[in-house]
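User: I'm curious whether this sequence folds into something compact or stays loose and floppy. Could you predict its structure so I can see for myself?
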Amino acid sequence: MRVLGINAVFHDPASALVVDGQVVAAAEEERFSRRKHGKRPVPFSAWEQPELSARWCLEHAGLAPEDLDVVAYSYDPDLVDAGDVPWEDLRTEYARRAPLFLATALPGLDPAKVRFVPHHVAHAASTGLAAPFDGDCAVLVADGRGECGSHLSGEYRDHKLEALAAQRLPHSLGLLYEELTEHLGFLRSSDEYKVMALASYARPAHLDLLREHVRATGDGGFAVTPVDWASLVPRRRPGDEVTERHAALAAGVQRRLEEVLLELVGWLHDRTGQRRLTLAGGVALNCVANTRIFAEGPFDEVWVQPAAGDAGTALGAALHVAAEAGQPAAPMPGADLGRGWDDGQLADRLRAAGVAYERPADVAVAVAEALAENKVVAWFQGRSEYGPRALGRRSLLANPCVAENLDRLNAVKGRERFRPVAPMVLEERAAELFTRGPIPSPYMLFVHDVRPEWRDRIPAVVHVDGTARAQTVARDAEPLMARVLTEFEARTGVPVVVNTSLNTAGRPMVDDPRDALECFGSAPVDLLAIGPFVVRR
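Assistant: Here's the prediction. I'll summarize afterward.
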Protein backbone atom coordinates (compact mmCIF):
# COMPACT_ATOMS: atom_id res chain seq x y z
CA MET A 1 0.00 0.00 0.00
CA ARG A 2 1.38 3.39 -1.03
CA VAL A 3 0.22 6.38 1.02
CA LEU A 4 1.31 9.98 0.55
CA GLY A 5 0.72 12.19 3.59
CA ILE A 6 0.14 15.92 3.21
CA ASN A 7 0.07 18.85 5.64
CA ALA A 8 -1.00 22.16 4.18
CA VAL A 9 -3.61 24.00 6.25
CA PHE A 10 -1.98 26.07 8.99
CA HIS A 11 1.79 26.28 8.54
CA ASP A 12 4.82 24.05 7.94
CA PRO A 13 3.49 22.34 4.79
CA ALA A 14 5.14 18.97 4.31
CA SER A 15 4.89 15.62 2.57
CA ALA A 16 5.64 12.07 3.68
CA LEU A 17 5.51 8.71 1.94
CA VAL A 18 4.74 5.36 3.56
CA VAL A 19 5.04 2.24 1.37
CA ASP A 20 3.97 -1.18 2.64
CA GLY A 21 4.30 -0.02 6.22
CA GLN A 22 7.76 1.52 5.77
CA VAL A 23 8.50 5.23 6.17
CA VAL A 24 10.30 5.98 2.90
CA ALA A 25 10.59 9.77 2.78
CA ALA A 26 9.44 12.91 4.55
CA ALA A 27 10.32 16.54 3.92
CA GLU A 28 9.10 20.03 4.64
CA GLU A 29 8.19 22.33 1.77
CA GLU A 30 10.36 25.15 3.13
CA ARG A 31 13.48 23.15 2.31
CA PHE A 32 12.51 23.30 -1.38
CA SER A 33 10.72 26.65 -1.68
CA ARG A 34 13.13 28.45 0.74
CA ARG A 35 10.10 30.12 2.41
CA LYS A 36 10.45 29.49 6.14
CA HIS A 37 7.46 27.60 7.56
CA GLY A 38 6.02 27.61 4.03
CA LYS A 39 4.73 31.16 4.33
CA ARG A 40 4.35 33.46 1.36
CA PRO A 41 4.35 37.26 1.83
CA VAL A 42 0.68 37.50 0.81
CA PRO A 43 -2.64 37.14 2.67
CA PHE A 44 -3.42 33.60 3.85
CA SER A 45 0.30 32.94 3.51
CA ALA A 46 0.19 29.66 5.39
CA TRP A 47 -1.99 28.04 2.75
CA GLU A 48 0.75 26.63 0.60
CA GLN A 49 0.40 23.18 -0.89
CA PRO A 50 3.61 21.12 -0.54
CA GLU A 51 3.94 20.54 -4.27
CA LEU A 52 7.73 20.34 -4.43
CA SER A 53 8.17 18.06 -1.44
CA ALA A 54 5.35 15.77 -2.64
CA ARG A 55 6.93 15.43 -6.06
CA TRP A 56 10.29 14.68 -4.49
CA CYS A 57 8.85 11.98 -2.21
CA LEU A 58 7.38 10.22 -5.22
CA GLU A 59 10.53 10.61 -7.31
CA HIS A 60 12.65 9.27 -4.47
CA ALA A 61 10.53 6.12 -4.37
CA GLY A 62 10.27 5.80 -8.15
CA LEU A 63 6.51 6.29 -8.08
CA ALA A 64 4.10 8.31 -10.18
CA PRO A 65 0.99 10.02 -8.75
CA GLU A 66 -1.25 7.39 -10.30
CA ASP A 67 0.65 4.69 -8.34
CA LEU A 68 -0.64 6.02 -5.02
CA ASP A 69 -3.42 4.19 -3.22
CA VAL A 70 -4.30 7.06 -0.86
CA VAL A 71 -3.34 10.67 -0.25
CA ALA A 72 -3.88 11.40 3.44
CA TYR A 73 -4.56 15.06 4.22
CA SER A 74 -4.03 16.01 7.88
CA TYR A 75 -7.15 18.14 8.36
CA ASP A 76 -10.82 17.23 8.24
CA PRO A 77 -13.03 20.18 7.23
CA ASP A 78 -16.16 18.31 8.37
CA LEU A 79 -15.00 18.71 11.98
CA VAL A 80 -14.75 22.49 11.88
CA ASP A 81 -17.09 24.64 13.92
CA ALA A 82 -16.23 28.00 12.41
CA GLY A 83 -18.23 30.16 14.82
CA ASP A 84 -16.69 33.61 14.91
CA VAL A 85 -13.11 32.54 14.16
CA PRO A 86 -11.79 34.90 11.45
CA TRP A 87 -11.26 33.27 8.08
CA GLU A 88 -12.29 29.82 9.31
CA ASP A 89 -14.98 29.43 6.65
CA LEU A 90 -12.43 30.33 4.00
CA ARG A 91 -9.83 27.98 5.46
CA THR A 92 -12.35 25.16 5.54
CA GLU A 93 -13.38 25.74 1.94
CA TYR A 94 -9.72 25.73 0.96
CA ALA A 95 -9.28 22.35 2.65
CA ARG A 96 -12.36 20.95 0.91
CA ARG A 97 -10.78 21.83 -2.41
CA ALA A 98 -7.50 20.15 -1.52
CA PRO A 99 -8.21 17.11 -3.74
CA LEU A 100 -8.45 19.36 -6.78
CA PHE A 101 -5.39 21.40 -5.81
CA LEU A 102 -3.35 18.26 -5.30
CA ALA A 103 -4.51 16.73 -8.57
CA THR A 104 -3.30 19.88 -10.32
CA ALA A 105 0.06 19.78 -8.53
CA LEU A 106 0.47 16.04 -9.14
CA PRO A 107 -0.86 15.32 -12.64
CA GLY A 108 -2.24 11.81 -12.82
CA LEU A 109 -3.52 11.77 -9.25
CA ASP A 110 -7.16 10.76 -8.88
CA PRO A 111 -8.79 13.36 -6.55
CA ALA A 112 -11.01 10.59 -5.19
CA LYS A 113 -7.94 9.08 -3.51
CA VAL A 114 -7.61 12.05 -1.14
CA ARG A 115 -8.76 11.21 2.37
CA PHE A 116 -9.12 13.66 5.25
CA VAL A 117 -7.56 12.68 8.59
CA PRO A 118 -8.37 14.73 11.72
CA HIS A 119 -5.47 17.00 12.58
CA HIS A 120 -4.88 15.71 16.11
CA VAL A 121 -5.33 12.10 15.06
CA ALA A 122 -2.53 12.72 12.54
CA HIS A 123 -0.37 14.23 15.29
CA ALA A 124 -1.09 11.23 17.51
CA ALA A 125 -0.21 8.73 14.78
CA SER A 126 3.02 10.58 14.00
CA THR A 127 4.30 9.67 17.46
CA GLY A 128 2.27 6.71 18.73
CA LEU A 129 2.74 4.70 15.53
CA ALA A 130 6.29 5.85 14.77
CA ALA A 131 7.86 5.41 18.20
CA PRO A 132 10.62 2.79 18.69
CA PHE A 133 8.49 0.78 21.10
CA ASP A 134 7.44 -2.83 20.91
CA GLY A 135 3.86 -2.68 22.09
CA ASP A 136 1.28 -0.16 23.21
CA CYS A 137 1.74 3.37 24.51
CA ALA A 138 -0.06 6.45 25.78
CA VAL A 139 -0.13 9.54 23.57
CA LEU A 140 -0.49 13.23 24.35
CA VAL A 141 -0.96 15.87 21.65
CA ALA A 142 -0.94 19.59 22.45
CA ASP A 143 -0.64 22.44 19.97
CA GLY A 144 -2.21 25.72 18.95
CA ARG A 145 -5.24 24.33 17.22
CA GLY A 146 -6.66 21.72 14.90
CA GLU A 147 -10.10 21.83 13.36
CA CYS A 148 -11.95 22.79 16.56
CA GLY A 149 -9.62 21.66 19.34
CA SER A 150 -6.10 22.02 20.70
CA HIS A 151 -5.36 18.73 22.47
CA LEU A 152 -5.87 14.99 22.43
CA SER A 153 -4.99 12.37 25.05
CA GLY A 154 -5.35 8.66 24.49
CA GLU A 155 -3.54 5.41 23.97
CA TYR A 156 -2.58 3.01 21.23
CA ARG A 157 -3.42 -0.65 21.64
CA ASP A 158 -2.72 -2.98 18.73
CA HIS A 159 -1.98 0.06 16.54
CA LYS A 160 -5.45 1.51 17.15
CA LEU A 161 -6.02 4.85 18.83
CA GLU A 162 -8.54 5.27 21.62
CA ALA A 163 -9.05 8.96 22.37
CA LEU A 164 -9.71 9.52 26.07
CA ALA A 165 -9.80 13.31 26.26
CA ALA A 166 -9.78 16.26 23.89
CA GLN A 167 -9.86 19.98 24.54
CA ARG A 168 -12.06 22.21 22.42
CA LEU A 169 -11.15 25.74 21.41
CA PRO A 170 -10.80 28.50 22.46
CA HIS A 171 -8.85 26.82 25.26
CA SER A 172 -5.34 26.20 23.97
CA LEU A 173 -1.91 25.91 25.55
CA GLY A 174 -0.27 26.42 22.18
CA LEU A 175 -2.21 29.59 21.39
CA LEU A 176 -1.40 30.94 24.86
CA TYR A 177 2.30 30.53 24.13
CA GLU A 178 1.84 32.01 20.64
CA GLU A 179 0.15 35.09 22.10
CA LEU A 180 2.99 35.55 24.56
CA THR A 181 5.51 35.14 21.74
CA GLU A 182 3.84 37.92 19.78
CA HIS A 183 3.54 40.18 22.84
CA LEU A 184 7.25 39.80 23.48
CA GLY A 185 8.03 41.03 19.98
CA PHE A 186 8.71 37.74 18.23
CA LEU A 187 6.95 36.01 15.34
CA ARG A 188 4.07 33.81 16.48
CA SER A 189 3.81 30.26 15.14
CA SER A 190 7.54 30.50 14.51
CA ASP A 191 9.60 31.94 17.37
CA GLU A 192 8.16 30.18 20.41
CA TYR A 193 11.52 28.47 20.97
CA LYS A 194 13.03 31.93 21.52
CA VAL A 195 10.61 32.53 24.38
CA MET A 196 11.56 29.17 25.89
CA ALA A 197 15.24 30.17 25.76
CA LEU A 198 14.50 33.63 27.16
CA ALA A 199 12.63 32.11 30.11
CA SER A 200 15.90 30.79 31.55
CA TYR A 201 17.19 34.31 32.19
CA ALA A 202 14.81 35.24 35.04
CA ARG A 203 12.74 33.88 37.90
CA PRO A 204 9.09 33.20 37.02
CA ALA A 205 6.79 36.18 37.53
CA HIS A 206 2.99 36.48 37.78
CA LEU A 207 2.57 32.80 38.67
CA ASP A 208 -0.45 33.34 40.93
CA LEU A 209 -2.31 35.16 38.17
CA LEU A 210 -1.26 32.66 35.53
CA ARG A 211 -2.50 29.78 37.68
CA GLU A 212 -5.92 31.43 37.71
CA HIS A 213 -5.94 31.78 33.93
CA VAL A 214 -4.38 28.41 32.99
CA ARG A 215 -5.45 25.28 34.85
CA ALA A 216 -6.06 21.59 34.37
CA THR A 217 -9.71 20.62 34.85
CA GLY A 218 -9.21 17.14 36.31
CA ASP A 219 -10.88 15.32 33.43
CA GLY A 220 -7.90 15.17 31.07
CA GLY A 221 -8.50 18.67 29.74
CA PHE A 222 -7.69 22.23 30.74
CA ALA A 223 -9.05 25.76 30.72
CA VAL A 224 -7.23 28.83 29.40
CA THR A 225 -8.85 32.24 29.82
CA PRO A 226 -7.53 35.39 28.11
CA VAL A 227 -4.58 37.12 29.74
CA ASP A 228 -4.16 40.90 29.56
CA TRP A 229 -0.47 40.72 28.73
CA ALA A 230 -0.05 44.51 28.64
CA SER A 231 -1.11 44.73 32.30
CA LEU A 232 1.86 42.54 33.17
CA VAL A 233 4.56 43.82 30.82
CA PRO A 234 4.26 46.48 28.07
CA ARG A 235 4.27 45.04 24.59
CA ARG A 236 7.75 44.77 23.11
CA ARG A 237 8.23 45.88 19.53
CA PRO A 238 10.47 43.80 17.29
CA GLY A 239 14.01 45.06 17.61
CA ASP A 240 13.47 46.67 21.02
CA GLU A 241 15.67 45.70 23.95
CA VAL A 242 14.75 42.47 25.71
CA THR A 243 14.53 43.25 29.43
CA GLU A 244 14.44 41.19 32.61
CA ARG A 245 10.69 41.89 32.85
CA HIS A 246 10.20 40.22 29.48
CA ALA A 247 12.27 37.25 30.61
CA ALA A 248 10.37 37.00 33.91
CA LEU A 249 7.01 36.90 32.12
CA ALA A 250 8.36 34.25 29.74
CA ALA A 251 9.58 32.26 32.74
CA GLY A 252 6.17 32.50 34.41
CA VAL A 253 4.28 31.20 31.39
CA GLN A 254 6.88 28.50 30.79
CA ARG A 255 6.58 27.32 34.39
CA ARG A 256 2.78 27.27 34.24
CA LEU A 257 2.84 25.33 30.98
CA GLU A 258 5.07 22.71 32.59
CA GLU A 259 2.80 22.42 35.62
CA VAL A 260 -0.33 21.88 33.54
CA LEU A 261 1.39 19.35 31.28
CA LEU A 262 2.48 17.38 34.33
CA GLU A 263 -1.13 17.27 35.52
CA LEU A 264 -2.30 16.12 32.08
CA VAL A 265 0.23 13.28 31.86
CA GLY A 266 -0.58 12.25 35.42
CA TRP A 267 -4.26 11.93 34.50
CA LEU A 268 -3.35 10.03 31.34
CA HIS A 269 -1.18 7.58 33.24
CA ASP A 270 -3.95 6.95 35.77
CA ARG A 271 -6.41 6.22 32.95
CA THR A 272 -4.20 3.98 30.83
CA GLY A 273 -1.66 2.36 33.13
CA GLN A 274 0.81 2.52 30.24
CA ARG A 275 4.56 2.62 30.92
CA ARG A 276 5.41 4.55 27.77
CA LEU A 277 4.32 8.02 26.71
CA THR A 278 4.61 9.53 23.24
CA LEU A 279 4.27 13.26 22.54
CA ALA A 280 3.48 15.36 19.48
CA GLY A 281 2.06 18.75 18.56
CA GLY A 282 3.89 22.06 18.60
CA VAL A 283 3.94 22.14 22.40
CA ALA A 284 6.00 18.93 22.32
CA LEU A 285 8.87 20.93 20.78
CA ASN A 286 9.25 22.59 24.19
CA CYS A 287 12.23 20.55 25.33
CA VAL A 288 12.28 22.11 28.82
CA ALA A 289 8.73 20.91 29.45
CA ASN A 290 9.56 17.52 27.93
CA THR A 291 12.33 17.04 30.45
CA ARG A 292 10.05 17.79 33.38
CA ILE A 293 7.58 15.26 32.00
CA PHE A 294 10.37 12.68 31.75
CA ALA A 295 12.02 13.45 35.09
CA GLU A 296 8.93 14.14 37.23
CA GLY A 297 6.07 12.43 35.43
CA PRO A 298 4.81 8.88 36.05
CA PHE A 299 5.91 7.27 32.76
CA ASP A 300 9.04 5.11 32.50
CA GLU A 301 9.78 6.14 28.91
CA VAL A 302 8.96 9.29 26.96
CA TRP A 303 9.41 9.59 23.20
CA VAL A 304 8.83 12.75 21.17
CA GLN A 305 8.28 12.84 17.41
CA PRO A 306 11.27 14.79 15.99
CA ALA A 307 8.89 16.59 13.61
CA ALA A 308 6.41 17.22 16.42
CA GLY A 309 5.00 20.39 14.84
CA ASP A 310 2.51 20.51 12.02
CA ALA A 311 5.02 19.19 9.48
CA GLY A 312 4.84 15.88 11.33
CA THR A 313 1.13 15.52 10.62
CA ALA A 314 1.99 14.65 7.02
CA LEU A 315 3.73 11.52 8.27
CA GLY A 316 1.04 10.90 10.89
CA ALA A 317 -1.78 11.07 8.39
CA ALA A 318 -0.05 8.50 6.18
CA LEU A 319 0.69 6.21 9.14
CA HIS A 320 -2.91 6.43 10.35
CA VAL A 321 -4.35 5.43 6.99
CA ALA A 322 -1.85 2.60 6.58
CA ALA A 323 -2.60 1.24 10.07
CA GLU A 324 -6.35 1.35 9.45
CA ALA A 325 -5.76 -0.69 6.30
CA GLY A 326 -3.92 -3.33 8.31
CA GLN A 327 -0.37 -2.16 7.50
CA PRO A 328 0.99 -0.60 10.70
CA ALA A 329 4.40 0.89 10.06
CA ALA A 330 7.70 -0.22 11.46
CA PRO A 331 9.22 2.29 13.91
CA MET A 332 10.45 5.50 12.35
CA PRO A 333 13.98 4.71 11.10
CA GLY A 334 15.37 8.14 12.04
CA ALA A 335 14.90 11.79 11.20
CA ASP A 336 17.10 11.67 8.09
CA LEU A 337 14.19 11.26 5.69
CA GLY A 338 14.84 14.14 3.27
CA ARG A 339 16.99 14.72 0.22
CA GLY A 340 20.53 13.45 -0.21
CA TRP A 341 23.20 13.44 -2.94
CA ASP A 342 25.86 10.91 -3.81
CA ASP A 343 29.55 11.80 -4.09
CA GLY A 344 29.44 12.19 -7.87
CA GLN A 345 26.49 14.56 -7.72
CA LEU A 346 28.20 16.65 -5.05
CA ALA A 347 31.41 16.85 -7.10
CA ASP A 348 29.38 17.99 -10.11
CA ARG A 349 27.73 20.72 -8.02
CA LEU A 350 31.08 21.93 -6.70
CA ARG A 351 32.61 22.05 -10.18
CA ALA A 352 29.57 23.88 -11.54
CA ALA A 353 29.86 26.44 -8.74
CA GLY A 354 33.48 27.08 -9.67
CA VAL A 355 34.81 26.71 -6.13
CA ALA A 356 38.12 25.17 -5.17
CA TYR A 357 37.64 21.97 -3.22
CA GLU A 358 39.62 18.96 -2.11
CA ARG A 359 38.95 15.38 -1.07
CA PRO A 360 40.91 14.63 2.12
CA ALA A 361 41.79 11.09 3.07
CA ASP A 362 39.17 11.25 5.85
CA VAL A 363 36.72 14.14 6.03
CA ALA A 364 36.05 13.37 9.70
CA VAL A 365 39.73 13.90 10.55
CA ALA A 366 39.86 17.12 8.51
CA VAL A 367 36.83 18.48 10.34
CA ALA A 368 38.10 17.44 13.78
CA GLU A 369 41.40 19.19 13.09
CA ALA A 370 39.60 22.36 12.03
CA LEU A 371 37.38 22.32 15.12
CA ALA A 372 40.38 21.76 17.39
CA GLU A 373 41.91 24.87 15.78
CA ASN A 374 38.72 26.75 16.74
CA LYS A 375 37.37 27.04 13.22
CA VAL A 376 33.66 27.08 12.40
CA VAL A 377 32.59 24.27 10.09
CA ALA A 378 29.52 23.99 7.88
CA TRP A 379 28.53 20.32 7.78
CA PHE A 380 26.44 18.90 4.90
CA GLN A 381 26.13 15.12 4.98
CA GLY A 382 23.63 12.45 3.98
CA ARG A 383 19.88 12.94 3.85
CA SER A 384 18.43 16.06 5.43
CA GLU A 385 16.47 16.08 8.68
CA TYR A 386 12.67 16.00 8.98
CA GLY A 387 11.68 18.48 11.64
CA PRO A 388 13.14 21.72 13.00
CA ARG A 389 16.31 20.36 14.64
CA ALA A 390 19.72 20.10 12.99
CA LEU A 391 20.84 16.61 13.90
CA GLY A 392 24.22 16.33 12.24
CA ARG A 393 23.12 16.38 8.62
CA ARG A 394 22.77 20.13 7.98
CA SER A 395 24.72 21.71 10.84
CA LEU A 396 27.20 24.37 11.89
CA LEU A 397 29.89 22.87 14.13
CA ALA A 398 32.30 24.57 16.51
CA ASN A 399 34.60 24.01 19.48
CA PRO A 400 32.63 23.91 22.77
CA CYS A 401 35.69 24.71 24.89
CA VAL A 402 35.73 28.38 23.84
CA ALA A 403 33.01 30.37 25.58
CA GLU A 404 33.09 33.08 22.93
CA ASN A 405 31.92 30.60 20.31
CA LEU A 406 28.33 31.05 21.48
CA ASP A 407 28.38 34.73 20.53
CA ARG A 408 30.40 33.90 17.45
CA LEU A 409 27.82 31.42 16.15
CA ASN A 410 24.90 33.69 16.98
CA ALA A 411 26.66 36.43 15.01
CA VAL A 412 27.23 34.05 12.09
CA LYS A 413 23.54 33.22 12.08
CA GLY A 414 22.39 36.79 12.79
CA ARG A 415 20.24 35.87 15.77
CA GLU A 416 19.66 36.98 19.35
CA ARG A 417 22.55 36.70 21.82
CA PHE A 418 20.43 34.87 24.41
CA ARG A 419 19.91 31.90 22.10
CA PRO A 420 21.83 28.75 23.12
CA VAL A 421 23.64 26.23 20.94
CA ALA A 422 23.66 22.50 21.52
CA PRO A 423 26.26 19.85 22.33
CA MET A 424 26.66 16.64 20.35
CA VAL A 425 28.17 13.76 22.30
CA LEU A 426 28.73 10.06 21.72
CA GLU A 427 25.89 8.08 23.23
CA GLU A 428 28.18 5.96 25.38
CA ARG A 429 29.86 9.06 26.85
CA ALA A 430 26.75 11.15 27.47
CA ALA A 431 26.09 10.07 31.06
CA GLU A 432 29.58 11.25 32.06
CA LEU A 433 28.64 14.83 31.15
CA PHE A 434 24.86 15.13 31.35
CA THR A 435 22.16 14.12 33.78
CA ARG A 436 18.40 14.39 34.43
CA GLY A 437 17.27 14.23 30.78
CA PRO A 438 16.90 10.88 28.97
CA ILE A 439 19.88 9.12 27.45
CA PRO A 440 19.96 8.29 24.61
CA SER A 441 18.50 11.51 23.24
CA PRO A 442 19.12 11.48 19.47
CA TYR A 443 16.61 14.17 18.44
CA MET A 444 17.56 17.09 20.70
CA LEU A 445 14.08 17.29 22.26
CA PHE A 446 15.05 17.34 25.94
CA VAL A 447 17.34 19.44 28.09
CA HIS A 448 19.96 17.93 30.36
CA ASP A 449 21.75 19.24 33.40
CA VAL A 450 25.45 19.63 32.72
CA ARG A 451 27.50 17.99 35.45
CA PRO A 452 29.34 20.68 37.46
CA GLU A 453 32.80 19.32 36.64
CA TRP A 454 32.11 19.79 32.92
CA ARG A 455 30.54 23.25 32.87
CA ASP A 456 33.83 25.12 32.65
CA ARG A 457 35.21 22.68 30.09
CA ILE A 458 32.40 23.11 27.54
CA PRO A 459 31.17 26.67 28.27
CA ALA A 460 29.90 27.39 24.75
CA VAL A 461 27.07 24.86 25.11
CA VAL A 462 26.06 25.46 28.73
CA HIS A 463 22.93 27.59 29.00
CA VAL A 464 22.60 30.30 31.64
CA ASP A 465 20.69 27.88 33.92
CA GLY A 466 23.35 25.17 33.75
CA THR A 467 21.52 23.02 31.21
CA ALA A 468 22.19 21.96 27.64
CA ARG A 469 19.97 20.53 24.90
CA ALA A 470 22.22 17.55 24.26
CA GLN A 471 22.09 15.30 21.22
CA THR A 472 23.50 11.82 21.62
CA VAL A 473 25.20 10.18 18.65
CA ALA A 474 25.09 6.41 18.20
CA ARG A 475 28.05 4.93 16.34
CA ASP A 476 25.94 2.52 14.31
CA ALA A 477 23.41 5.18 13.25
CA GLU A 478 25.85 8.05 12.61
CA PRO A 479 29.31 6.55 12.00
CA LEU A 480 30.74 9.64 10.30
CA MET A 481 29.75 12.07 13.05
CA ALA A 482 30.89 9.54 15.64
CA ARG A 483 34.35 9.62 14.03
CA VAL A 484 34.39 13.42 14.17
CA LEU A 485 33.64 13.27 17.90
CA THR A 486 36.28 10.58 18.47
CA GLU A 487 38.94 12.48 16.51
CA PHE A 488 38.06 15.78 18.22
CA GLU A 489 38.42 14.16 21.65
CA ALA A 490 41.79 12.71 20.64
CA ARG A 491 43.00 16.27 19.99
CA THR A 492 41.29 18.13 22.85
CA GLY A 493 40.28 15.63 25.52
CA VAL A 494 36.66 16.73 25.12
CA PRO A 495 34.05 14.33 23.63
CA VAL A 496 31.65 17.11 22.57
CA VAL A 497 31.24 19.45 19.61
CA VAL A 498 28.86 22.37 19.20
CA ASN A 499 25.93 21.79 16.86
CA THR A 500 23.48 24.37 15.55
CA SER A 501 21.45 24.51 12.37
CA LEU A 502 23.10 25.42 9.07
CA ASN A 503 21.16 28.55 8.16
CA THR A 504 21.03 32.26 8.85
CA ALA A 505 18.26 34.20 10.58
CA GLY A 506 14.90 34.05 8.85
CA ARG A 507 15.99 31.38 6.37
CA PRO A 508 15.11 27.69 6.42
CA MET A 509 17.81 25.16 7.18
CA VAL A 510 19.88 24.45 4.08
CA ASP A 511 18.84 21.40 2.10
CA ASP A 512 20.36 21.48 -1.39
CA PRO A 513 24.13 21.75 -2.07
CA ARG A 514 23.40 25.11 -3.66
CA ASP A 515 21.92 26.32 -0.37
CA ALA A 516 25.01 25.12 1.51
CA LEU A 517 27.37 26.91 -0.86
CA GLU A 518 25.31 30.08 -0.65
CA CYS A 519 25.33 30.00 3.16
CA PHE A 520 29.07 29.25 3.25
CA GLY A 521 29.78 32.08 0.84
CA SER A 522 27.74 34.67 2.74
CA ALA A 523 28.62 33.84 6.36
CA PRO A 524 31.96 33.88 8.23
CA VAL A 525 32.42 30.12 8.18
CA ASP A 526 35.92 28.67 7.84
CA LEU A 527 35.30 25.32 6.21
CA LEU A 528 32.49 23.51 4.40
CA ALA A 529 32.45 19.72 4.69
CA ILE A 530 30.12 18.49 1.98
CA GLY A 531 30.08 14.74 1.52
CA PRO A 532 33.71 13.56 1.32
CA PHE A 533 34.86 17.00 0.11
CA VAL A 534 35.96 20.16 1.89
CA VAL A 535 35.89 23.76 0.74
CA ARG A 536 38.16 26.10 2.67
CA ARG A 537 37.75 29.83 3.23
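Summary: The longest strand covers residues 149-157. The mean pLDDT is 94.
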